[in-house]
């Protein structure tokens, strides 16, 4: 499928200009602007760039790594040079994952348009490729990499180097035999079609062929009856098997051979993730307190908590990932303009006005469900006037200010496309919040955590909270921050829109001492949990412990990749990536107490069997040509303490291309509604810590049983297609 914007005269001219290459100015700040030479490679999928002073050392990035192209002054760096470079020469490449943006300035409007339109068209073209075309593209990529002298053919020496590049260690005799079988022309080289045969022999998957032949009536093809039997017996599709078999035959016709079967197994339908849970499938009309809400901590920070940059880009990244609760720490700024930063640290400051504008622009791009903006207000009365005006004027009708009395919170459905402010509030003129320090003032909490352990020579968080609250600002607050006294006090006195915040240590303390009371509290009230003040490196705590208690707003440092964010992404990937997941019934019922620390004995526990079969095209962890991985698979279960477990396979020496494990890992899940399953692939190292290769995290309730592919993600949570592991999953009920 070729995009129209690539085939027209303008599209052709854009590509030719990009292939010829040109100097673009890379901008990091008002004072950092450097010339770089950028050019599109012949494969039309890779962009190479180098410093003007470098001779031949080009670095590259793939078009598939680019998520969006923004034209004009649409970044902080380009806005800072707006007086120097006009908007029609500026553009920003936004990358997937946590990689920073690339801000560029062209020499002319025409050159800028060539890159903006050209990259946009190439991205569209990639998105439109079907699985078969992607596979052809994948094979042609390997051919290009192997064809070192670019003569359109590869010899055996080049083929051996290719095997190393592909992460496979094959003995020379076997490699030579495959090469000769593919060399039909007997020219001792492989041309394109011969190379496709060589590739197919390399990638032939005996484990899939065995399964295919188990169900094929004639050993050569799968009839409709054969496929229906496979779907019913192995994939446990029940009554839907007949219809699904017809659909698959129609989709992969005329490939009724093992190739078509493999295409099905590696497609999204053959994935471990149940497609019925991918789109919005949950009831969204229950009170807000009945949902987990994807939440970010100190959203404005790009790196650590002490000296890293603050940026509106951090809000854009979080909101694009479906985050539904962001944090804004407001402080007095110069010229009467409130600023956002991590108070009393060396983190940089950004204007509150820019933060609110960004939130207004991106609030509902990924999800239509309500966005909560958690405000820490440290401003004077004068600057609170400015805050209130910005919230009202910039957010307009999106801002929800109606806090009409009700016995429970409204639902996500009722609050679609609404922004809710959370912060200090007083209900009437006689109420005076002066000097009250509630637990949502993290700086105060951090002061307690960090006594005598300051990073600087003077205490970092020795702050006195004695500012008054402006009534105009108080009126805009929907979720009222309150100090937590006790579960009993909350049960008898709390209003539905009141919420308390807990540091991770305090939340853990309450969960150990009064688990059932905490769960009951969270059936009615929203609870926010945030990382300990000791986590100055922006590390994260395990969110599962808090979700087990029914805590809704479990705030994490979105900028920090790792297991904790994998779990967050895994939970919120379902239900249309809406940022809202309906809590299990056991955490919403007020009549029946549940304690995750001591779950009641349940009759319906689930033995879970994972048969880890094989892996495909695993990426290298070190880019040296001779380096080949020794992969192992670890399966980790997160959930109630009784269900927490991990097991791993043995490692396979020197094969990242098609390792075969054929091992069974067995787990017993007592509380499946709260369980998350994380698959981790690592490169075994006996002398030091294993290197991470890829992972995939999925809620237990979203798993499809049967023969499935687990499509691996990078540390950043982005796809590393076509890397996957092939598993056989059995879930039985006792």
Topology:
Elements: H1 4-7, H2 9-20, E1 22-27, E2 33-40, E3 46-51, E4 59-62, E5 66-71, H3 76-80, E6 90-95, E7 102-105, H4 109-127, H5 131-146, E8 154-155, H6 156-165, H7 172-182, E9 189-190, H8 192-203, H9 206-215, H10 224-233, H11 241-252, H12 258-266, E10 291-296, H13 312-320, E11 325-331, E12 339-340, E13 350-351, H14 352-362, E14 371-377, H15 381-395, E15 399-400, E16 419-423, H16 442-449, H17 471-474, E17 477-481, H18 487-493, E18 498-503, H19 504-513, H20 515-524, E19 527-530, H21 544-548, E20 553-556, H22 563-572, E21 580-582, E22 606-616, E23 631-638, E24 645-648, E25 660-669, E26 676-683, E27 691-699, E28 706-713, E29 719-731
Parallel strand pairs: 10-20, 11-14, 14-16, 15-16, 16-17, 17-18, 18-19, 19-20
Antiparallel strand pairs: 1-2, 1-7, 2-3, 3-4, 5-6, 6-7, 8-9, 10-21, 11-12, 12-13, 22-25, 22-29, 23-24, 23-26, 26-27, 28-29
Helix pairs in contact: 2-4, 5-6, 7-8, 10-11, 13-14, 14-15
């Amino acid at each position: 499928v070729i995009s129209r914007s690539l085939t027209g005269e303008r599209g052709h001219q854009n590509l030719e200009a990009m292939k010829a290459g040109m100097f673009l100015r890379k901008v990091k700040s008002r004072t950092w602007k450097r010339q770089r030479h950028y050019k599109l490679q012949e494969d039309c999928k890779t962009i190479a760039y180098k410093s003007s002073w470098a001779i031949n050392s080009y670095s590259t990035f793939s078009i598939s790594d680019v998520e969006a192209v923004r034209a004009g002054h649409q970044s902080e760096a380009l806005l800072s040079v707006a007086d120097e470079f006009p908007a029609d020469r500026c553009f920003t490449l936004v990358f997937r994952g946590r990689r920073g943006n690339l801000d560029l300035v062209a020499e002319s409007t025409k050159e800028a348009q060539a890159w903006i339109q050209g990259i946009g068209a190439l991205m569209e073209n990639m998105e439109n490729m079907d699985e078969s075309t992607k596979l052809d593209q994948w094979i042609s990529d390997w051919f290009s990499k192997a064809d070192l002298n670019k003569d359109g053919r590869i010899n055996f020496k080049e083929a051996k180097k290719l095997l190393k590049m592909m992460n496979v260690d094959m003995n020379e005799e076997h490699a030579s035999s495959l090469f000769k079988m593919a060399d039909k022309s007997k020219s001792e080289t492989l041309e394109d079609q011969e190379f496709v045969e060589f590739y197919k022999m390399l990638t032939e998957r005996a484990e899939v062929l065995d399964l295919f032949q188990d169900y094929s009536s004639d050993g050569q093809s799968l009839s409709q009856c054969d496929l229906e039997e496979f779907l019913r017996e192995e994939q446990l599709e029940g009554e839907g098997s007949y219809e699904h078999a017809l659909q698959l035959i129609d989709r992969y016709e005329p490939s009724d051979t093992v190739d078509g079967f493999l295409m099905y197994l590696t497609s999204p339908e053959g994935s471990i993730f149940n497609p019925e849970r991918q789109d919005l499938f949950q009831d969204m009309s229950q009170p807000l307190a009945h949902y987990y809400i994807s939440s970010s901590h100190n959203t404005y920070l790009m790196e650590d908590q002490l000296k890293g940059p603050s940026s509106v880009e951090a809000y854009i990244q979080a909101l694009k990932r479906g985050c539904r609760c962001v944090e804004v720490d407001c402080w007095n700024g110069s010229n009467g303009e409130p600023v956002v930063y991590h108070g009393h640290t060396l983190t940089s400051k950004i204007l509150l006005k820019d933060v609110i504008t960004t939130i207004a622009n991106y609030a509902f791009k990924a999800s239509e469900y309500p966005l909560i903006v958690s405000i820490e207000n440290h401003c004077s009365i004068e600057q609170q006037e400015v805050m209130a005006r910005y919230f009202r004027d910039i957010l307009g009708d999106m801002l929800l200010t109606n806090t009409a009395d009700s016995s429970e919170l409204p639902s996500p459905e009722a609050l679609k496309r609404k922004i809710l402010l959370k912060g200090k509030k007083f209900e009437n003129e006689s109420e005076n919040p002066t000097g009250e320090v509630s637990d949502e003032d993290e700086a105060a909490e951090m002061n307690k955590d960090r006594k005598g352990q300051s990073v600087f020579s003077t205490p970092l968080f020795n702050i006195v909270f004695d500012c008054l609250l402006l009534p105009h600002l108080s009126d805009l607050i929907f979720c009222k921050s309150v100090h937590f006294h006790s579960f009993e006090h909350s049960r008898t006195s709390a209003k539905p829109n009141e919420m308390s915040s807990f540091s991770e240590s305090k939340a853990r303390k309450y969960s150990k001492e009064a688990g059932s009371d905490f769960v009951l509290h969270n059936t009615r009230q929203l609870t926010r949990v945030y990382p300990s003040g000791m986590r100055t490196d922006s590390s994260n705590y395990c969110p599962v412990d808090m979700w087990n208690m029914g805590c809704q707003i479990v705030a994490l440092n979105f900028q920090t990749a790792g297991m904790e964010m994998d779990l967050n992404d895994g939970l919120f990937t379902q239900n249309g990536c809406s940022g809202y997941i309906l809590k299990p019934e056991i955490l919403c019922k007020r009549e029946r107490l549940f304690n995750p620390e001591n779950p009641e004995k349940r009759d319906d526990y689930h033995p879970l069997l994972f048969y880890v079969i094989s892996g495909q095209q695993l990426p290298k962890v070190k880019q040296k040509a001779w380096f080949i991985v020794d992969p192992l698979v670890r399966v980790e279960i997160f959930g109630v303490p009784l269900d927490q477990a991990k097991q791993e396979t043995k490692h396979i020496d020197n094969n990242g291309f098609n390792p075969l494990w054929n091992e069974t890992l067995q787990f017993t899940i007592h509380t499946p509604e709260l369980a998350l399953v994380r698959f981790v692939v690592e490169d075994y190292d006996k002398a030091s810590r294993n290197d991470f290769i890829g992972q995939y995290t999925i809620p237990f309730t979203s798993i499809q049983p049967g023969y499935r592919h687990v499509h691996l993600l990078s540390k950043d949570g982005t796809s590393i297609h076509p890397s996957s592991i092939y598993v056989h999953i059995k879930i039985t009920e006792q």
